[in-house]
Amino acid sequence: PNMVNATFNQIVHCIGTETDPTFLSSLYRCFSECMRVAGGPHSLPQEVHDAVIEATKRQLQSIADRRKSRAGKPATELADDREDLMLVEEMEDFALEDMAKMLTTLEQNHSLLIAVGSVRELGLHLDQWESGDEGES
How far lies 77's CA from each of 48, 72, 82, 98, in Å? Predict the structure, then answer.
């Protein structure tokens, strides 16, 4: 039990401090898999459960802040970095997806699932921008 708790605590600590959305996605998958191996969400100590929820809240806020910051940039600046921003947004979406899967495993209708959806909607959705209007007058 001590090794299991130490493992979960390390993963939760990493989740709470990770800034790379690709690695964050991996951490959420790792946490979910460890939870499954340990016997499911009911086998988690309450402090681990509470800690992963707090870490998830911080990550949601961080991703939301980054998306709001990007949305506040002029369209011409966004157009210059369109491909890079699309990739960043896609990686954030993967992290949000894995976050939602973990939350659903904890509780089918977890209240943070609404926040995950709201943060996802903050995205620029650059892949939906029309690429055919660049040469038109």
Answer: 42, 10, 9, 30
Amino acid letter for position 70: R
Is the whole-model pTM more than 0.70? Answer: yes
CA 31 from chain centre, in angstroms, equals 13
* DSSP assignments along 48-110, one per residue: HHHHHHHHHHHHHHHHHHHHHHHHTS-HHHHHHTHHHHHHHHHHHHHHHHHHHHHHHHH-TT-
Cα 68 from Cα 63, distance rounded (Å): 9
Q: What does the chain come to in residues?
A: 137
**Tens of pLDDT, residues 70-99:** 888 887 877 778 888 889 999 999 999 999
Q: Report the C-alpha gap between 82 and 86 in whole angstroms.
A: 6
